[in-house]
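This is your field. Please look over both lines of this record.
***
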Amino acid sequence: LGLLTLNGLVAADGVIVPLQCEYFALEGLADILRTVELVKGGMNPSLEVDGILLTMFGQNNLASQVAEDIRRHFTGRVFDTVIPRNVRLSESQSHGKPILLYDVASKGCQSYLAFAREVSRREARRDRKNP
């Protein structure tokens, strides 16, 4: 992780960890969680992992197994929304447009909108618990 990422973690209250549904990504997850704990133990004690977002989910057994393993190991910390592998998401980047402007009806865009709603609901619940 670079200095920019570290600075972001020091300045943040929470972090959402995107995780590609492949086994090599699990190693990166362990690294980022270790880094969050180091930052939390030193420069930013209020830093929390808000959740893990499963991304680039393909319709195959490997992706399903990774998702199942992550949900089992990190119970309650994985978002319900899953971002699928979607060509329109890649195309929007190559056209220099956000997916909302490139193809709002695409499965990828609709998944990110569902994720935004899920984050909003979580934050609203958290605010009600801690007025």
